[in-house]
Write a sequence for this structure.
């Protein structure tokens, strides 16, 4: 009997030890088990949420696809009806325009315009146009001649102004000028005349003008001195009058 009680006591002791050991092990593994449980719950919840979101996305995509198809078909139907209406309107407009054009032509030819009178009018207009065309052609020719003469006058004026200071290029009795070289095969020309001849004429005209200006200056000075014997007029006044006379005597 006492052996049996000892076995029971030992068994109780072992059971208590195992219980306390299990409690200690459970206490030691509490954090790990809690973290594992949290991890499992998080994964499971994420799976449920992702599945629900995927389901909602698929349903929303389906709804959008169905609505867009419906809207596109409605828009196409409306555009097709508008296009058909525009084509019918354009067809009837062309038909109405053709009918109106045909009737107006018939009415105009029968009741408004006379064919022979219109033919005479067209012939008169053609004759008048031909006369105006000839007059315009003659006027154009005259304008071209006047323009050419004006341009030649401008070129000659420019040449004369330039040649006033080129007297040193004119040939002398002992020395030929650069435009009258005896070694040149052809002498240079301008305005259809040799440059040497034009320079000679221009320089001669300038010399004559300068000589007349000097004579006029001398005459004015003598007249001024005769009119003002007491010398009240200054030399600058006489010089300015002489310069004006020289400028008026210069050729254009």
């Amino acid at each position: 009997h006492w052996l049996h009680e000892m076995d029971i006591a030992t068994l109780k002791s072992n059971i208590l030890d195992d219980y306390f050991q299990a409690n200690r092990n459970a206490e030691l593994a509490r954090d790990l088990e809690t973290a594992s449980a949290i991890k499992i719950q998080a994964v499971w919840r994420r799976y449920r949420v992702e599945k629900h979101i995927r389901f909602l996305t698929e349903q929303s995509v389906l709804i959008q696809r169905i609505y867009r198809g419906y809207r596109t078909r409605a828009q196409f139907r409306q555009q097709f009806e508008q296009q058909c209406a525009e084509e019918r309107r354009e067809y009837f407009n062309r038909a109405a325009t053709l009918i109106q054009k045909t009737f107006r032509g018939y009415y105009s030819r029968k009741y408004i315009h006379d064919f022979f009178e219109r033919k005479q009018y067209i012939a008169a207009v053609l004759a008048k146009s031909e006369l105006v065309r000839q007059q315009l052609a003659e006027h154009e020719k005259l304008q071209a001649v006047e323009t050419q003469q004006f341009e030649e006058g401008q070129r000659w004026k420019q040449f004369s102004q330039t040649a006033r200071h080129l007297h040193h290029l004119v040939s002398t009795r002992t020395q030929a000028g650069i435009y009258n070289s005896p070694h040149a095969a052809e002498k240079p020309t301008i305005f259809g005349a040799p440059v040497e001849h034009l320079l000679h004429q221009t320089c001669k005209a300038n010399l004559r003008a300068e000589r007349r200006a000097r004579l006029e200056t001398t005459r004015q000075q003598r007249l001024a001195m005769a009119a003002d014997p007491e010398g009240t007029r200054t030399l600058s006044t006489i010089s300015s009058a002489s310069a004006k006379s020289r400028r008026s005597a210069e050729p254009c």
Observations:
- Strands lie at 189-190, 193-194.
- Residues 248-252 have pLDDT under 50 and may be disordered.
- Residues 154 and 160 are 10 Å apart (CA to CA).
- The chain is about 80% helix and 0% strand.
